Amino acid sequence: MKNVFFTALIGIFFLQLSYSQFSKPVAIEDKTFNQYYFNKENIPVIKGKIINLPTNVNDTIKVDYSVVTPFSSLQEKKHTVVNSDGTFKLNLDYAFPYQQIWLKVGNLFYGGIYAHTHLLVQIDYQKITAGNQQVYFNGNGVKFLQEDGPLNTFMNNYIIYRQQDKLGVYEKLNNMESKIINLTKPTAENLNEEHSLLKQFDSIYGQVKRADDTYIADNPFKDAWIIENERLARYYSYLSLAANHGIHLDEALKEKIYSFKPLLVSNDGMSYYNYLQFYIYAKLKFSGVQYDGDMENLSEEEKEAINDELSKKAALKRVRNQIAIVDSLFKPEKADIFKMKFNTQDIKHQMAINEVVLKNMHTPWCINVVNREQEKAIQKQNEINKTLATATTLKETSVFGEPLLETPFGAKLYTVKAPNAKKLLANLHQTFPQKALLLDFWATWCGPCISEMPYGKELHDEAKNLPVKFIYICTTSSSSLDKWKSKIAELKQPGIHLFVDENIVHELMEAFSFTGFPSYAFINADGIYQPGAISRMSTTSKEELEKLVNKK
Length: 552
What we know:
This protein has 552 residues and is an alpha/beta fold. It folds into five domains: 2-28; 43-162, Immunoglobulin-like (Sandwich); 165-281, no CATH class; 301-388, no CATH class; 393-550, Glutaredoxin, CATH 3.40.30. It contains 18 helices and 16 strands. The strands form three sheets. The chain has a seven-stranded mixed β-sheet, sandwiched between helices. Helix 6 (191-218) runs antiparallel to helix 7 (225-244) and helix 13 (364-390) crosses helix 16 (481-491). The protein is globular and about 70 Å long.
């Protein structure tokens, strides 16, 4: 009996120890985080419930959410469905503390939520539709319930408090941060001006702290430390960005930046690592990898293969140099977070980078993440190979390009060798008479371009009965035919795809006054360009596109 009693006491002791250890904030760069991460019970459970939902309305409500991560991509976009009873669930893959999620539920609600243990977001359909206005962050018709409910009420009300900005300090901060983003390298003429800017920056952050303290005093909450940690993460992020632009930071301040620990997997917390890496890699001198042979008499396919191999070797050389830098500056747990951020849009190159990273990693949870990402990359590459294997030769004549492939998911691929941009546009208008043209300018290496593609795919599917053609114009710059085909197969992106000489793309973009990728042009059925009609696929609805198509 004594042994049973003693065993029970030991069990209670370890339960209390475990609770005590993790009831306090744990940073992803703490050694103790490994234990937290590998306990699947620490993966937050986030659910939603739309109450007072009319019958058969659930299918019309889209739930989109972006999960903030410590990986190379700051946010991972996801979707889920609303069940007939109004319930929905968000899928989280990892046990990260205080993980920020940007949630959009149809035209009912948009807000930033923090996932830590359990959260239920309750949305009252009748109340919100009666008000005829979507609720942003918090308001009538929205409740945050369960363990994470008070935290999310506190933080979403804080966002509203910042937006109201009665003292004007948050607007000052936004303006100052914009100035830092646009800083140029200091010269003898503007050095004093740049240092003066940082003094103003410090002063404004002091005002922001006082405004934050006022909110906390008026809204007491046990986890109010979150606001300070988020503020410091943002502060050190922009100091790192300023230093990257050449502004001198003294050693004491540099040490504060290096030793800071974000306690939330949030936009501000994870941007700290992103901006800091820009600074620490800024002075890295890198020479490319050269080919020793003679490429003059090689075929285009052979040249493409050699250039691809050189590109991969250059990427691996850069990664090894960056690994050496972070290992020299930080303890392994922090250095490995930076190593997780090495990425490229080329899946084959990414797999090679992952292999190098894994050989130089020491933190168990980081190793687990990279291994899982490597498995995803291998699976994705296999799917690409299968998709391209099922593609057929495109057997049709075209005035704007040479037909290549037609895929089962509705993509038609062409290479374009038009003499100039004007001729290409004329040929497209001639090929698709009485059709509006939505041109998407992109590159295989452009992260923002790739991020927008799923929205373009969704819009394409929704607009299948509209007289509009989706035409994806990819530049040959820093790319190849195989990379282009593989990326389309990876994305399963329907539409007309053109692989266009970079000079023609440059000429086209100049004609539309575009300065970078991605860019979008809408040309109506009469061949008239509508400037600014499409800014992003992610912000364009089927209804807006229909108005553009039907506009006379």
